[in-house]
From TrEMBL:
Species name: Roseobacter insulae
This enzyme's EC code(s): 2.4.1.1
Name by which UniProt lists this protein: Alpha-1,4 glucan phosphorylase
GO CC annotations, alphabetized: cytoplasm
Top-tier EC class: transferase
Reaction it catalyzes: [(1->4)-alpha-D-glucosyl](n) + phosphate = [(1->4)-alpha-D-glucosyl](n-1) + alpha-D-glucose 1-phosphate
Length: 804
């Protein structure tokens, strides 16, 4: 497959054709929205041929397909992704300029598809890109939420949430598939007829498909992201309408639609809501029904299903896939119980993304029975088979709960963690018993990120420098970046590397100025922590260090301080009180510190509202220092850490998640390490009053806590943060107090290192050069090799270069 050449003139004509025929607009009246839609539709046209060709090739190959089931796909904008992968980015820009339009403004008009909360959802999006780039036949399956992740606003520094409305405008990339729909049952009861179970459902909704093609690098392959929307079986109750009861008339549709209405904003905790369980079953059942229909329509024998179907469960949210597949095999295809379980298990694999116990889903058993009575019975059968095979003490149904982690584990042929450290901790902690029941089942697949989005398209200045230094074939072979290492000794190269960073810093400054009226000092170090707000990620420790630094600059203003801009970004789950207090405190502290004339030159805090994927694309290339400071043992992997390093920002971080592997790759001398290790964290928790002792031992920290508790940053409400501070002193589960001094000291090492401009740039360049291993292409190759056993169907990889 190759991409036919399109000239900018031809592409302009294609855009104009869509403007006229798809948007019904005349050039003289077209809005930015009209231009954006026309551009998107023109690009989409070019995806269709590779998409069809990939589907044909998959059918011909009669091989295995991957089904990636994920409750979240944090896609962001698609225009640049598609343009870049089609090789049409420059053409699109030129075509639009010829039409008198500003390409950047048109691209920025696209709302982020925020169908995810954070790392897990963004990983799924990177994986879709890599699956297509590698030519592995795959479907992503998820939910077409009407409202993505909430929009964040600050009111007097406090987080407020409003509904996100990405679908208020037409979504350019998707194809509606009204003919692809499945009934999804809930509730009711199970009857036995001649030894056969019959589920009499109490409620049925319809899952209806929307397909978005996902084109890979250089359009060699395109897979499908199929998202399900919930619809009613009876769209409209005409009787009620005729009686004049208009509300009742629309009720069935409204009720059914509720299921795909909102993304749950809770990033870590089991919300325990019936609706969430229904969402999980809704998209999982639709996906399993869909893949079985495809398999059977190709004449497959279900006993051979595992040779053709690899189902990857992205965390426990789709863990009901096991019982659902077993149910369908038994109830609809006449399988014996043990045969059904074995067959299903041979298709299924499960990725764990967190060790936080509260994030391993558990459902109250009575709720589960009410919503999924047949599945409850099947889970009993699965549990019995597991105990019979292993003699294990581990149960799926226990203490009135259904434990989805255990279910996912037992029904998977492989379970993987997402970094080397995390995978070991999975074996030692949450799944220690199951690990001994099923040795060898847990493996590691360290996360990765797509270099197409996270370097090629978000960082044009660095992309160009790399192209001119090592050639242009690195975006699908990222280890080639290693070729930059030798240039890191060359002052001329380092100057160019620094110039690229400076250009990105200027772009960020201009963007912030235009958006929020905030100006940044371009010579300052841009020190960035962007991610969900969570106690274990320790944004609070970063803020405490900032206040300590402020104190010290005030006391000793002429000590030659390295100017810093501390940039925070991220949302807190609306119900997570402590995380919201941390946001409030950061904003309160920013107000006071930024207004201090004595320190203004050296220290500024910036917290732009509504952090999302698009904002990350501007912030990451402009970052000098990457903050990866979680309590060791708590961050499963992190992927932001990889994005920063790739874009030339050294890390200050703990030995947690993939930080460990990043440090191994970039070299200890190019990474600012601090803090307790995972083992030391566990040991420290056993020490009585460890937090109080840490505060007593650190006058610097004690002073900062007194200031915060005393209302220095909250003069309007002096006790606002007393709970937060007392919480730290009395129950600092995430060891902010214990790591504080080490963190503060290491930050001062960073100050010194940054002052030596050339040495710093060299460190930054070596970060870029040495993290090619963290491409999600490498990760997906690992899954394909170790878990799915799926080869690439791109025959002539070498021919890609011819296409460029
Ligand atoms: C995240 C992990 O916190 C992060 O370390 C990792 O890089 C990422 O997954 C991808 O593997 N976990 C989640 O996003 C997560 O557990 N979310 C679910 C609770 C919704």
């Amino acid at each position: 497959m190759s991409i036919p050449y399109v000239s900018p003139q031809e592409f302009s004509a294609e855009i104009l054709r869509h403007l006229k025929h798809s948007l019904g607009k005349d050039e003289s009246h077209a809005s930015v929205y009209d231009w954006r839609m026309s551009l998107s539709l023109a690009l989409r046209d070019h995806v269709v041929d590779p998409w069809f060709a990939s589907t044909r090739r998959t059918y011909e190959a009669r091989g295995k397909r991957v089904y990636y089931l994920s409750m979240e796909f944090l896609i962001g904008r698609l225009i640049e992704d598609v343009a870049v992968n089609l090789g049409l980015d420059a053409v699109a820009e030129e075509a639009l300029s010829a039409l008198g339009q500003d390409y950047a403004a048109v691209v920025a008009n696209e709302p982020d598809a925020a169908l995810g909360n954070g790392g897990l959802g963004r990983l799924a999006a990177c994986f879709m890109d890599s699956l297509s780039t590698l030519g592995i036949p795959a479907y992503g399956y998820g939910i077409r939420y009407e409202h993505g992740l909430f929009e964040q606003h600050f009111e007097d520094g406090a987080q407020m949430e409003t509904a996100e409305t990405w679908l208020a405008q037409r979504h350019a990339w998707e194809f509606e598939r009204p003919e692809v729909s499945y009934p999804i049952n809930f509730g009711g009861h199970v009857e036995e007829h001649e030894g056969k179970a019959v589920w009499r459902a109490g409620e049925t909704v319809v899952a209806s498909a929307y397909d978005t093609p996902v084109v890979g690098w250089q359009a060699q392959w395109a897979n499908t992201l199929r998202l399900w929307a919930a619809k009613s079986t009876t769209a409209f109750d005409l009787d009620s309408f005729n009686r004049g009861d208009y509300m009742a008339a629309s009720a069935p549709e409204a009720l059914a639609r509720t299921i795909s209405r909102v993304l749950y904003p809770d990033d870590t905790t089991d919300t325990g809501k019936e609706l969430r369980l229904k969402q999980e079953y809704f998209f999982t059942s639709a996906s399993i029904q869909d893949l079985l229909r495809r398999f059977l329509s190709e004449g497959g024998d279900l006993r051979a299903l595992p040779d053709f179907v690899a189902i990857q469960l992205n965390d426990t949210h789709p863990a009901i896939a096991g019982p659902e597949l077993v149910r369908l095999l038994i109830d609809e295809h006449g399988f014996e119980v043990s045969q059904a379980i074995t067959t299903a298990r041979s298709c299924l694999a499960y990725t764990n993304h967190t060790l936080l116990p509260e994030a391993l889903e558990r459902w109250p058993e009575d709720l589960f029975i009410r919503v999924l009575p047949r599945h409850h019975r099947i889970i009993q059968l699965i549990e019995a088979a597991h105990i019979a095979a292993t003699g294990s003490d581990i149960r799926i149904l226990e203490h009135g709960e259904v434990k989805m982690g255990e279910l996912a584990f037992i029904m998977a042929h492989h379970v993987n963690g997402v970094s080397a450290l995390h995978s070991e901790l999975v074996k030692e902690t949450v799944f220690a018993d199951l690990h001994s029941d099923y040795p060898g089942r847990i493996i590691n697949q360290t996360n990765g990120i797509t270099p197409r989005r996270w370097l090629y398209s978000c960082n044009p200045p660095l992309r160009e420098l790399i192209n001119e230094t090592i050639g242009t074939t690195w975006p699908d072979d990222l280890q080639q970046l290693d070729g930059l290492s030798v240039h890191a000794k060359d002052p001329a190269f380092l100057d160019k590397f620094q110039a690229a960073k400076d250009a990105n810093k200027t772009r960020l400054s201009n963007w912030l100025q235009a958006r929020d009226g905030v100006s940044l000092n371009p010579d300052a170090m841009f020190d960035v922590q962007i991610k969900r707000i969570h106690e274990y990620k320790r944004q609070l420790m970063n803020l405490l260090e900032t206040v300590a630094l402020w104190n010290e600059i005030r006391e000793n203003p002429n000590a030659g301080w390295t100017p810093r801009v501390k940039i925070f970004g991220g949302k807190a789950a609306p119900g997570y009180v402590v995380a919201k207090q941390i946001i409030h405190l950061i904003n309160d502290a920013a107000k006071v510190i930024n207004a201090d004339p004595a320190t203004r030159e050296y220290l500024q805090i910036v917290y732009p509202e509504n952090y999302n994927v698009s904002m990350a694309e501007i912030l990451i290339p402009a970052t000098d220092l990457s903050e990866q400071i979680s309590t060791a043992g708590k961050e499963a992997s992190g992927t932001g850490n990889m994005k920063f390093a790739l874009n030339g920002a050294p890390t200050i971080g703990t030995l947690d998640g993939a930080n460990v592997e990043i440090r191994d790759c970039v070299g200890a001398e190019n990474f600012f390490l601090f803090g307790l290790t995972a083992a030391e964290v566990t040991a420290r928790r056993a020490v009585p009053e460890y937090a109080r002792r840490a505060v007593e031992a650190s006058p610097r920290l004690a002073r900062v806590l007194q200031q915060i508790e005393g209302g220095v940053f909250s003069s309007d409400d002096k006790t606002r943060y007393s709970g937060l501070v007392q919480g730290l002193i009395n129950h600092d589960y995430f060891l902010v107090t214990c790591d504080f001094d080490s963190y503060f000291g290491t930050q001062r090492d960073v100050d010194k290192a940054f002052a030596d401009k050339q040495a710093w740039t060299r460190m930054a360049a070596l970060n870029t050069a040495r993290v090619g291993w963290f491409s999600s292409d490498r990760t997906i190759s690992g899954y394909a090799r170790d878990i799915w056993k799926t080869p690439s169907l791109i025959s002539a990889r070498g021919s890609r270069q011819d296409v460029a």
